């Protein structure tokens, strides 16, 4: 598999030369398949065995979350910082434990996309008060010896829930990038993610860390995704990662039932959300090179049961026979990349 990059690391293993693309960008017309965003959603484990991987091909990557937000609390969970990496954590949206993916052979050929939050702490990050956590994260990522997509301060323009201050957000991004560079962490792609709606080109430019600090642009695709990030990414010659996607049926501020368990809805949900989603990927195959589908029962998780966007959503593909079959028909097309021995230049991990 050919992967684009402006920078390459060359490793000599036995008698062969392996070229490792730091950006992990597949060729035009190919798209990496990621699944998230908790252990039950992905499945494939002894204790989590009713998720995506128990019914479909092992994805090219999985999505997890962690934070640089010590002392924040969420639905009874108290953050220490970098929660959900080395130990299991649950802040109201399902169990998260990145090391479990590293330890289990099921995911030995899967990359990891990390949503890195620093809500309420962007100033502390920017002035160096949390360098100890950043260095620990850098060391952990380096130790994985597999591709890591790091979504720093994801959904930076989510004013209502992240409320980042631009000045400190941008300084925090630069500080994180600088520490990773000093530590020579080569197996990371830096991903800059918008919430996917309402931010025009001026807003995106104002919040952009810079071409030298960003490897991938990204956005969330829920109820009303727009095209602004695609326009922006083409201008800056960056690949795009649809880093959060789940079927939300929405008209303005009205949200409709998107529960795939309900047979009477499954064909409607496929028609109204999945078909436009895949059309977006195919129409923009020159720039959209990865997506992460969130395969969760949102309506059962404490974080979302009172959230009007997600409290009517059960996006688990496996609960719908119809949607499962349609998904397989689409995702088995050659353009979609799942896990394999060759996908990420396996020699890097030996």
Q: Explain this structure to me?
A:
With 350 residues, this protein is α/β, with parallel strands linked by helices. The chain has one domain: Alpha-Beta Barrel (TIM Barrel), CATH 3.20.20. It has nine helices and 19 strands. The strands form six sheets. Strands 5-6-9-10-11-12-13-17 form an eight-stranded parallel barrel. A hairpin with a 2-residue loop joins strand 14 and strand 15. Helix 8 packs parallel to helix 9. The longest helix has 21 residues. It is globular, with a radius of gyration of 19 Å. It starts with a strand and ends in a 13-residue tail after the last strand. The N terminus and C terminus are likely disordered.
Which properties best describe this structure?
alpha/beta; globular; 9 helices; disordered C terminus; TIM Barrel; 350 residues; two-stranded antiparallel sheet; single chain
Brief description of this entry?
By secondary structure, this protein is an alpha/beta fold. About 25% of the residues lie in helices and about 25% in strands. It has a single domain (about 5-350), classed as Alpha-Beta Barrel (TIM Barrel).
